[in-house]
Amino acid sequence: MNISETRKHGDASDGMIGGRHSRFEGSVKVTGAATYALEYDVEDLAHAVLVQSTVAAGRVVDIDIAAAKIAPGVLMVLTPEDDLGLKVASDWYGNRPENQDYAPLPRTVRFNGEAICAVVAETREQASEAAKLIRVVYQETPAVMSLDDPDAGEGKLMDNLTAGWGDAEAALSAAPVRIEAEYCTPREFHVAMEPHGLTAKWDGDKLTVWEPSQWTHGMARSYAEWFGIPLDNVRMVSPYIGGGFGSKGAALAYGAVAAAAARKLGRPVRLAVTRPQNFTSYGGRAATRQKIALGATAEGVLQAIVHRGMSETSTYLDYAEQTGAATAVLYKVDNFSSQHRVVPVNSVTPGALRGPGKNPSAYGIECAMDELADKLGMDPLELRLKNDADHDYQSGKPWSTRRLREALTEGAKAFGWSGRSHRPRSMRDGKTLVGWGIGCGTFPVIRAPSSAMIRILGNGRVEVVSGSIDMGQGTYTILAQTASEALGVPIDQIDVYLGDSRLPGSAIAGGSMLAGSITGAVHKAATAARDELIGLALNDAHSPFRDTGANTLMVADGRIGATRGDGQSLSIAELMATLGRDHLEILRNTLAENTQSADDHKRAWTTMAGVQGPTMGDYSMHSWCAHFAEVRVDEDFGTVRVSRIVSAFDCGRLYNPKLVESQWRGGIIMGIGQALLEEGLVDMRNGRLVNNNVGDYLVPTNADVPNIQVISVGVPDPHASALGGKGVGEVGIVGVAPAIANAVFHATGKRVRDLPITLEKLI
Ligand code: MCN
Ligand code: MOS
């Protein structure tokens, strides 16, 4: 059965909110019709290649570009000598330093792999060849290579990440049962299938950038500010993205270099960031360390949590991988203290990677809970249920919805947890040790203002238009479903246009905030569009419904007609053909090339709607999950295989369970990689990331992925979003690594407290 047949054979309600509709853009992707950023046919294109520093810190004192400049095809060589005339752009939150110069090819090197030169040539091959001819002389300065470096120091205490209530230290020392341990996670990377890169083209002072983007509006703002041009002059185009996982939310130095080169050269420039360069052109997940002490009664009632975490950052910006993020919300505890420090090292500034903060945080607290259960001689499931938090102890607010208890009990039932013998090394299958472990996860509900546009075209088709993006998570599909349901138009009559900064602004596809934010906007716009269509049908001088005496009409299955009886009904196209043009707002929109026939657009009519990001208000809102993992460990060789995972989730209402299950599974698979495989290795002599390629930086392959059963225990959460859904995209990875680590302990009796759990740590 091919994709279009799958769609045809789908259930009729498939296309509604909550239906299991297959990926809307699936067929264009599998047939290769989807165009990615580096595939656009742009005339007169030149190609740029980056040259990166080979030292961790220092000053570029001499660059010999003579040979590169005369190499075949070379058009331009950019070095720190060149004034690109750029200004520092706003940060993430829109704060901008006044009139500061920005040098994306800096003279002062801050990490190994920082871009310092670029070569532009007629072809990419010529640029790469010429790049090899550049000779750079550095004056090296002392550097801190990683958190493991003896010179790394204690870093800086982050006041905004210091939390506490009760008297944690006193309650801890008074507690009859205590555990204390340190947990470590390494530097990790996104490794999205589509590497970074862009094509930049100037028309006068107007810039078009084709670049994979999790946030077209935010990135367009950076380009505009770098170059000092109005925001309207920048167009970011990003309709298809081969995965981002947090790495594609911000415009980065290589983008500034390519766009500056294009401006200087007067030709469009394409810059493909190579796979190795991907590892240092933007930040992965920071390495973390955290000490956790838990105190409990002999019955397993938590008395105190003391948490001290740290994460690496760069030498030039503080980015905190917040190790206390999940610690504070998972359990009921009256005495709590958490601190987080950032330690500058000579690396690119780390960034968000699926479940930032929450992910290493859950690794710490969920391993610690397992250690406590072991010390108490208690079932780790029972320990978690006993300490389930009835409200948010940090904010004092009630949960909007929290079904972690249900996730634990339903997950346990599906997994067969009651068959566990709790003593470590007590379950085996021949020569293989078998272990079962639990890890819980959470991710906050975040929202941001989003807007969307609905157009009903003269031919009866409906367009959903938004500047938000789909990097694989399902935005196209859920927006089509939302519009279909709100308008009463079958989903195959709907087209969705995304990924262009000239379209209505939206939340970033980050922090698992997009689906909840943008479905609200589309629902509102589509409902308003339907009401306006009905209004026109009742009032337009030419409408056949005008004289029927009806005071309302309904739209269903793409037809408009009387709400009851078998009165006349018309398809939307038939109705649109009768309406007077004076009632149709003629589109003066920018999106000519994304539209259907020009004539249809003349008869189109537009509704815009926006939803504000509601404040977090009176509730504490989060998604929740409980993972149950089974591992099999070879006793002689220490090899670990994950043989089974069952995970239960509370993410509120699911707009499309098929896509959600895929999101959860994707997160869980990344969690398997984090537990067993992934680790950025730094050469302590020069700060170079040694395994900067997909051959040496291991991510799970199909052979590493077992049967994963996912279960939804959520209920619609009216506080979380307009349609009742909570975030889905990130919570899946949170809690997987501790579930596996705890299973490995259960199998082997050996507690590995630093990820990944490789065989040499087990032997
Ligand atoms: N969804 C749903 N019902 C809900 C919530 C979500 O059906 N109540 C489904 C929808 O298909 C929606 C998807 O889940 O498109 C994700 O929704 P949401 O949780 O709002 O997350 P965002 O749309 O903001 O996407 C970003 C999120 C993040 S932050 C990372 S990191 C991540 C992730 O999504 N990166 C991904 N999932 C990814 N999936 C793919 N394929 N590739 C990535 O790079
Ligand atoms: Mo996701 S790491 O917030 O893009």
> In one word, what is the shape?
globular
Beta-strand fraction estimate? 15-25%
List low-confidence stretches.
1-12, 582-615
Total number of helices? 18
Strand order of the largest sheet: 3-7-1-15-12-13-14
- End-to-end CA span: 48 Å
Structural class: alpha+beta
Helical proportion? 10-25%
| Cα Rg | 28 Å
How many DSSP E strands? Answer: 30
Mean model confidence by pLDDT: 92
Bound molecules: pterin cytosine dinucleotide, dioxothiomolybdenum(VI) ion
Please specify the SSE layout and strand pairing.
Elements: H1 3-9, H2 26-30, E1 46-52, E2 58-64, H3 66-69, E3 74-78, E4 86-87, E5 101-102, E6 108-109, E7 115-121, H4 124-131, E8 135-140, E9 156-157, E10 163-165, H5 168-174, E11 177-185, E12 197-203, E13 206-210, H6 216-227, E14 234-237, H7 253-265, E15 269-272, H8 275-278, E16 288-296, E17 302-313, E18 336-344, H9 358-376, H10 380-386, H11 404-415, E19 428-429, E20 432-444, E21 450-456, E22 462-465, H12 475-487, E23 494-497, H13 514-539, E24 553-556, E25 559-562, E26 569-571, H14 572-578, H15 598-602, E27 605-611, E28 622-634, E29 640-650, H16 657-676, E30 707-712, H17 736-748, H18 759-762
Parallel strand pairs: 1-15, 13-14, 17-18, 22-23, 29-30
Antiparallel strand pairs: 1-7, 2-6, 2-8, 3-7, 4-5, 9-18, 10-18, 11-16, 12-13, 12-15, 16-17, 19-20, 20-28, 21-22, 21-27, 24-25, 25-26, 28-29
